[in-house]
Amino acid sequence: MRYKLLLVLLFAVALFAAISVLRPIGEAGLKSQTEVPEQQKVSAYFCPEDDCSGKLIDAIGSAKTYVHIAIYSFTHKGIADALVSARLRGVEVKVLFDRQQAGSEFSVDEILSEAGIEVKYDTLSGYMHDKFTVIDDRIATTGSFNYTRNADARNAENLVIMNAEDVAMKFELEFQKLWESSGS
Q: Strand 118-121 relative to strand 92-97: parallel, antiparallel, unpaired?
């Protein structure tokens, strides 16, 4: 029940973000990269044309206190490097992986762990299919975007970045719940 409620909440947030940011641009149709005015604090990006990994790396680069990630598939070395850089700046970094996906030879879980980043693996009976990042209680990212080169350069994916404390706190609470129930 709790998982279904989370899925409905994530879908509602993603749907609200998509509806509120897409706007026609004359006869040209929709812009591929669509951002809302600053006061709305939501940006939607679409891969491969919007460089989703670059947007996520920029967000990670803004972290001052912590970066917490729950991710299904994570093989993107550039994003891993941004997390290592954040840790070297004194930022707390924690990454929760789906256990099965982390078993891939391309997963960056061992690279992150060797760099001193806290890594855990889900203990759910099904997939830990989340794809979200929380930064400093102020930014939450979510979408279909797995942290992989294929997702960034080949697949039709989306990344929503929300600079909204109330939303970030909800994602952080979910992260803490998943983190506490997972193993190393």
A: parallel
How far from the centroid of its chain's Cα atoms is residue 91's Cα?
A: 17
At 55-103, the pLDDT tens digits run 999 999 999 999 999 998 898 999 999 999 999 999 999 999 887 776 7
Q: What is the pTM of this model?
A: 0.77
| CA pair distance 144, 91, nearest whole angstrom | 26
**Percent of the chain that is helix, strand, coil (3-state, to 5):** 45, 25, 30
Summarised one tens digit per residue, pLDDT across range 113-162 is 999 999 999 887 778 788 999 999 999 999 999 898 889 899 999 999 99
Residue 134, φ and ψ in degrees, nearest 5? -125, 135
Classify strands 42-47 and 131-135 as parallel, antiparallel or unpaired. Answer: unpaired
Q: Which CATH number fits domain 2-24+36-180: 3.60.20.30, 3.40.50.970, 3.30.870.10, 3.40.640.10?
A: 3.30.870.10
Q: Which residues belong to the active site?
A: 129, 131, 136
H or E element that contains 35? strand 34-35
Task: State how far the alpha carbon of 56 is from the alpha carbons of 16, 28, 139, 181, in Å.
Answer: 20, 27, 11, 26
Q: Residue 26 phi/psi, 5° resolution?
A: 55, -145
